[in-house]
């Protein structure tokens, strides 16, 4: 049983998603919701993450919706202050809305970006504080999520640290199901 996990995956640009109106985001959220509900039903209590734009931010939005029906909590731990300051405006706004509604928010470093060690330490911190991960990534093209995924795989090799994947095939299945459901 996983009580505390992190969720991560690709950034929008790595998924060739150019704006928030991209219809694929809806399917990604449906896939995230399905896995999260399953984990909640199995005892999941907390999801903690940095809130990175893309999969993490969309997952945070899904978790906030799930809070209306399920006893799930969300913690946002960006690696440093002003984490979102260089993101496109739409993602900055979404991030600020998410942290306002999160159960807990605390930057890991109480200073703006200084050096890559802040990201490296964020990854280590997330792995140390969680019992597993929900990962939406194409393992053949992991993009920036690949750094964290590699560290998680090392931990999984050494001890019980489940990595629950949502794969491109899973997303295709969600699209098929959603399209079938909308026919009736």
Features:
single chain, alpha/beta, Rossmann fold, six-stranded parallel sheet, 6 helices, 14% strand, SLOG family protein
Question: What do you see in this structure?
Answer:
The chain is globular, with a radius of gyration of 16 Å. A 6-stranded parallel beta sheet has the order 4-3-2-1-5-6, sandwiched between helices. It has one domain (4-181): 3-Layer(aba) Sandwich (Rossmann fold), CATH 3.40.50. Helix 2 links the parallel strand 2 and strand 3 (73-76). The chain contains 6 helices and 6 strands. The N and C termini lie far apart (37 Å). By secondary structure, the protein is of the alpha/beta class.
Short description:
This protein is of the alpha/beta class. Helices cover 46% and strands 14% of the residues. The chain has a single domain, classed as Rossmann fold.
Largest sheet: 6 strands, parallel
Q: DSSP strand (E) fraction? A: 5-15%
N-to-C SSE string, H for helix and E for strand: EHEHEHEHEHEH
Backbone shape: globular
What is the structural class?
alpha/beta
What portion of residues is helical?
A: 40-55%
Gap between N and C termini? 37 Å
Give the number of DSSP strands.
6
- Which fold does the CATH topology refer to? Rossmann fold
Top-tier CATH class: Alpha Beta
What average pLDDT do the residues reach? 95
Rounded Rg:
16 Å
């Amino acid at each position: 049983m996983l009580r505390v996990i992190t969720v991560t995956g690709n950034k929008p640009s790595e998924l060739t998603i150019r704006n928030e109106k991209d219809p694929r985001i809806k399917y990604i959220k449906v896939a995230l919701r399905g896995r999260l509900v399953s984990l909640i039903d199995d005892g999941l209590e907390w999801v903690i993450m940095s809130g990175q734009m893309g999969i993490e931010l969309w997952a945070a939005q899904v978790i906030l919706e799930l809070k209306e029906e399920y006893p799930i909590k969300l913690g946002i731990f960006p690696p440093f202050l002003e984490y979102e300051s260089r993101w496109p405006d739409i993602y900055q706004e979404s991030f600020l809305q998410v942290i306002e509604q999160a159960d807990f928010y605390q930057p890991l470093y109480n200073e703006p970006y200084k050096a890559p060690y802040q990201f490296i330490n964020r990854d280590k911190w997330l792995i140390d504080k969680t019992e597993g991960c929900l990962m939406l990534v194409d393992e053949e093209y992991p993009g920036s999520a690949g750094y964290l995924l590699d560290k998680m795989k090392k931990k999984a090799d050494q001890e019980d640290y489940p990595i629950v994947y949502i794969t491109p095939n899973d997303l295709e299945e969600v699209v098929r199901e959603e399209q079938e459901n909308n026919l009736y």
